[in-house]
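---------- Forwarded message ----------

FYI, see the Glutathione transport system permease protein GsiC record below. Original note from H. follows.
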Amino acid sequence: MLRFALSRIVMAVPTLLIVAVAVFVMIRLIPGDPAQLLLGDLATPAALADLRAKLGLDQTWAAQFGIWFGNMLHGDLGASINTGQPVLPLVWDRFLISGRVVLVAVLFAALVAVPAGMIAAWKQNKAPDLFLVGSATLLVSIPTFWLGLLLLIFFGLKLQWLPVVGYVSIGDDWKAGLLYLVMPIVTLFLHEIGVLMRMARASTLEVLRLDYITHARAKGLSESAVLMRHAFRNAFGPTWTLIGLVLGNLLGGIAVVETVFTIPGLGRLLVDSIFARDYPVIQGCLLFVGVVYVIVNLLIDLCYPIFDPRVTAE
């Protein structure tokens, strides 16, 4: 187990380095001169030169990357061009909002999707299976922004049960803060439940065809015992891996949901920074999402032996 964990951690190090290089290069490949965009067309050459020197744009890419990477290792991602606020605290504060929404949505989606997927596999090609698979396909097919708008119209405007737009910090007023997070969480929950349910069904179907399941049934065990004692552990492994991928993907793609519900999360910060040409914040957001994605999937890999101890055998 220790050898398996160390190997996964060592493999994550070059992955993080690749993420850092990719983020740095992508920002540098954006068309246009950042200094010109910030100062406008009427800026003097002297002002442009001063700003380029301040941003380090007058140096080679290798020198820029060395300075940026060294500062990054010390927790310094620069400062916002527009507000002057340090990037790392800004990104972290927004990440806490996005992470709360994503984590709760995926947690509830997994709690519902995994049992539903196992039931669908157990009742393959019967009414429960057809209903669950049809529902999962429908939920996956609906775009998150459209689903969010439907929830806004029905629960916010028609029934007036929940606030439509705005955001209140849970630290300031936890009751109001929770109300503002209900619809974003439900939107992600409904979308991801379809993805996880289909994976749980597919993996359970594969396990139910194995010989040891047939042997368990031949011993006279009930279907519930076969599912929970013998099928669940092996069937949950692929779904557990998908949960890690879903967490990372949602953190990187939550900007649409945050825009619909006006939540000041990490995705909204990234979108606002793109429109404002705030390159240090854009770079910090992309790097942070990439690092979180790698760390989440590393933790998923480290937990995988719980469901299948054979993965540690090397």
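H. also flagged this: The two ends are 10 Å apart (CA to CA).
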